[in-house]
Design a protein that fits this description.
about 190 residues, globular, alpha+beta, 8 strands
Length: about 190
């Protein structure tokens, strides 16, 4: 018994989607669930908890919702978390994203996530969990501060930059580079 939702959000907090960390053997990221989806999840959570209570025996404690007051959710997966699926990362054309790109994903990357809201029942405890099963990167923010939000044609780039004085590919004006003579020479 699980319910799937597709949400538009941005990655937040510390992000490691490249490979399992050495110490904890996990990968992780955070994301914020939009307010309208939180309302749906809260209503759905009540139904999922009723189902979990029906499977539990004895006294059980109810766990907190997997999101905080602002809708922030953390998701960890990897070798030490075998019950959490590794999300499939794709681009806007549905092509799998290479590991070399995943290594550079940073906070602020805009994504569409497929999340799965499901109940659990452990000895003495019931609750719901959110698993991320798919991630489509819509706008990539990298470690060097670069953002890739899709294709720009040459005309789009020219329209954004306009023209200015300086280098021209069809008529280069090569000159010696200026040397900074203010460097101090230190003797050791």
């Amino acid at each position: 018994m699980a319910n799937r939702h597709v949400i538009d959000t941005a990655l937040d907090g510390f992000i490691n989607v490249y490979k399992d960390s050495e110490q904890y053997k996990t990968r992780s990221f955070k994301y914020k669930i939009p307010a309208d989806v939180i309302q749906k999840l809260e209503a759905e959570r009540e139904e999922l908890l009723i189902w979990a209570r029906s499977k539990a025996t004895g006294r059980v404690q109810e766990a907190f919702a997997p999101w905080d007051d602002e809708g922030l959710v953390g998701y960890a997966y990897g070798e030490s978390r075998p019950n959490n699926p590794i999300p499939v990362f794709v681009d806007t054309m549905g092509e799998p994203i290479e590991m070399s790109v995943l290594q550079n994903v940073r906070k602020g990357t805009k994504v569409r996530l497929i999340i799965q809201h499901k109940p659990y029942c452990m000895i003495g405890k019931i609750g719901t969990a959110i698993k991320v099963v798919g991630c489509q990167i819509v706008e990539l923010v990298t470690g060097n501060g670069a953002v890739d939000s899709g294709d720009l044609s040459v005309d789009d780039v020219v329209a954004m930059f306009g023209t200015t004085d300086g280098y021209k590919a069809d008529s280069p004006a090569v000159r010696p580079a200026a040397v900074d003579s203010t460097e101090d020479n230190y003797e050791f």
